[in-house]
Amino acid sequence: MTKILERNASRGVRLSAATRRKPQQTRAKFSSEALQEAFVRVLLERGYERVTVREVAAVAGVGVGTFYEYVANKEALAALTIHMCVKQQAQAMQASMERNRGQPLTDMVQAIIHDQVELLMGDADKWVALFLLERRVSSSNAYLKHYDQFVAMWRQALASACEPLGEERLDHVARMVHAIVYGWVTQCLMTLGAGLDKARLKQELLSAVRGYLQDSQRTDCLHLPGR
After folding, report:
1. Mapping DSSP to helix (H, G, I), strand (E, B) and coil, where does residue 154 land?
2. Domain regions of the chain by residue span
3. Which is more confidently placed, 7 or 195?
């Protein structure tokens, strides 16, 4: 928890000295999580412009003074909430990758896409609101760190399949696969909302990524020695 809070502070989420001194206490963790959950509830009910510190604190069951022990304002809480939700998404992807390590490349990709779509569509309204809000409150530095984190995980996933791509192309391919999956999912959610056809989304994503990977594998074969 200490490292999380320190990273948040470096990304523009301002935390009080008291929070940095005592982040591991059960009460501290509970209050921080309660504030994040309350923020999402109020955000969905009222929209970001009408979110107030007082209402978020009331919904979380804490005093306004307690709110300011953890974050400086609602913008900081918004950034913290987005960061923690993205962390949850990253953990789910890591778990998918570990469960499918050594599987054929297509199976690995299909499993990750399935789990990511299930996670996001399981609480689609929340993710739509957070994806839209991220573009408003997150710094470019925070956004790039999240982006690079997912590219690195895709690289690791592609490298751990039983038929990995050529090492020299992994970075580029991982970045392109993440762009396809992240871009497709976020744009569909933000424009179509929770009514999005989940099964169709998975199939379209898999078809697009599979086609790209097959082309990449053909390119690798063409560059093998003797070809």
Report:
1. helix
2. 2-72, 78-222
3. 195
CB distance 115 to 96 below 8 Å: yes
pLDDT tens-place string over residues 94-126: 999 999 999 999 999 999 999 999 999 999 999
Contact 9, 83 (CB under 8 A): no
Superfamily in which the 78-222 domain is placed by CATH: Tetracycline Repressor, domain 2 (1.10.357.10)
- CATH number belonging to domain 2-72: 1.10.10.60
Which parts of the chain fold into alpha helices (H)?
A: 2-10, 17-21, 26-46, 53-60, 64-70, 74-99, 105-121, 124-137, 140-160, 170-192, 198-222
Read off the pTM: 0.80
pLDDT at residue 2 tops 90: no
